[in-house]
Write a structure and sequence with these properties.
This protein is mainly beta and about 300 residues long. Helix content is about 5%, strand content about 50%.
Length: about 300
């Protein structure tokens, strides 16, 4: 397996992006700042979806809730890489209009899990919610273990949340429709946790953080560490049996994750990488540099 650099282009958007998503159904990347929203197609063609020169309009950007993001586009970005889904716009508005978080210092992150469960993350509290005609009701809550939660992922099959902390602690939190189970510590990681991702069948879990990547086996009852790599990494993408590592200023590594991880290829880029996205049907990567405000497209090739 190898990566081929196909194109580097100057970004037509501000460095601070409001939306960055890979849209598998459309076969394009969705990107937006306050002034423009566009699609970037795999061969580098840009398709403008919306634009304004009005400063008042630009500074009123509302992110996911903005009317400039069409309902069809919103549906395409609801599935998140960490296994959770965004709620419908209407449900978020109902929660915002309720009294549940009126006194909160910061707004919680609220997602949809399996079987329409609604899960809220705020500070060191995870809560299960239900949305009723009368309003929003909190069914159960539990305090997280360890230090502050900074990354979470949902198992693709089980009602199981895995979360990592800024001190490298990794925990598993089971739940059902209206209550939480007993949490369990999976591992003490070498450092801060950056990303957690399950394979589609839920049998493997990958965790990356400051200076490491780990692979765990998951048999439905617990987790077992299978492999570990010491490496610089900001984020990663899963492609078949490979991990593609975004190493920031150190470029990209491709690692075959077997019982013994094997580095297949490395690539240097003309800029440090801040964000990396993967368009699976087209097997194309988008790399974004925040320091040079450039984008690069890479093709994933056999051989």
């Amino acid at each position: 397996m190898k990566l081929i650099l196909s194109k580097v282009i100057p970004s037509p958007l501000d460095m601070k992006l409001q939306l960055v998503h890979a849209l598998d159904a459309r076969g394009a990347f969705l990107l937006a700042d306050r002034w423009k929203m566009l699609l970037l197609h795999p061969h580098g063609v840009l398709e403008l979806l919306w634009q304004t020169t009005d400063e008042d309009v630009a500074y009123q950007w509302r992110g996911f809730f903005d009317d400039r993001l069409s309902d069809s586009l919103y549906e395409e970005i609801r599935q998140l890489p960490n296994g959770f889904q965004l709620l419908s716009k209407e449900d978020y508005l109902r929660i915002g209009a309720s009294d549940l978080y009126k006194s909160a210092r910061s707004l919680p992150n609220i997602y949809q899990g399996h079987e329409n469960t609604v899960i809220s993350f705020m500070g060191k509290v995870i809560a299960l919610l239900t949305l009723e005609k009368e309003g929003v009701v909190e069914l159960a809550r539990i305090r997280t273990k360890g230090k502050d939660l900074i990354q979470e992922a949902l198992h693709p099959v089980q009602n199981l949340i895995v979360y990592g902390t800024n001190h490298g602690e990794l925990f598993a939190q089971p739940f059902d429709q209206d209550q939480f189970g007993k949490p369990a510590k999976i591992d003490q990681l070498p450092n801060t946790c950056y990303q957690i991702r399950f394979t589609g069948d839920g049998r493997k879990m990958f965790v990356a953080g400051l200076g490491y990547v780990k692979m765990f086996g998951c048999n439905g009852h617990g987790f077992t560490e299978k492999a570990s790599v010491t490496t610089a990494v900001r984020s990663f993408e899963l492609v078949d049996d490979y991990l593609v590592l975004n190493k920031g200023m150190h470029g990209i590594d491709i690692i075959k994750m077997a019982d013994k991880p094997e580095r297949i290829e490395s690539m240097d880029l003309p800029f440090p990488i801040d964000k990396m996205l993967y368009l699976a049907p087209q097997r194309v990567f988008l790399l974004i540099s925040g320091s040079t405000n450039e984008w690069a497209l890479l093709n994933w090739a056999e051989g």
